[in-house]
Specification:
Strand order of the largest sheet: 2-1-10-9-7
Low-confidence stretches: 1-10
Order of helices and strands: HHEEEEEEEEEE
Number of helices: 2
Largest sheet: 5 strands, antiparallel
Distance between the termini: 19 Å
Oligomer: single chain
Number of domains: 1
Shape: globular
Helix content: 10-25%
Number of strands: 10
Structural class: alpha+beta
CATH class: Mainly Beta
Strand content: 25-35%
CATH topology: Tumour Suppressor Smad4
CATH architecture: Sandwich
Radius of gyration: 14 Å
């Protein structure tokens, strides 16, 4: 499956174990952060199989029951307006320009664009301004959960 294509809705059975692992990981972040990262790695591997071209960094998310992905390129802005590279007009909790991910030499950095509800990375409930992303990072923002997938 190519980047940008959606997994057919009959693939929900494959999606359930991934969502279960992600939920478990978020619950364990305060008790044992190392366990969270193991679970996120498993989620990342499943996402690669389901929806992502493993040669390019991407954000993977679920919309209307389908897994979708968006390649990041040099930069990717996520928000509610159509001016964003990845737009979620249906998400009232999301700011017009919620966050931007920028590719820098050897790394990708997420910057919250001053959103009202904040952007959270790795299940850590602290408002961020910038954060370097790692493969498998969960990003929660505007009522949507994303997974950052980066090739090795």
């Amino acid at each position: 499956m190519r980047v940008g294509e959606s997994k057919p809705s009959d693939g929900d059975a494959e999606l359930e174990p991934m969502l279960h692992l992600a939920a478990q990981g978020l619950q364990t972040v305060l008790r044992d952060p190392s366990e969270l990262f193991k679970q996120l790695h498993q989620v990342s591997e499943m996402l690669r199989e389901l929806a992502v071209d493993p040669t390019r960094p991407a954000l993977v998310y679920r919309r209307a029951g389908k897994i979708e992905s968006k390649e990041i390129g040099n930069a990717l802005t996520v928000g509610r307006t159509g001016e964003c590279d990845l737009s979620f007009p249906e998400c009232d909790e999301m700011s017009r320009r919620q966050f931007t991910i920028t590719g820098e030499p050897g790394r990708y950095v997420l910057a919250d664009n001053g959103s009202l509800n904040g952007t959270f990375v790795r299940g850590i409930r602290g408002r961020i301004t910038t954060r370097e992303l790692c493969d498998g990072d969960l990003i929660e923002s505007g009522g949507v959960t994303f997974v950052f997938v980066r090739p090795a």
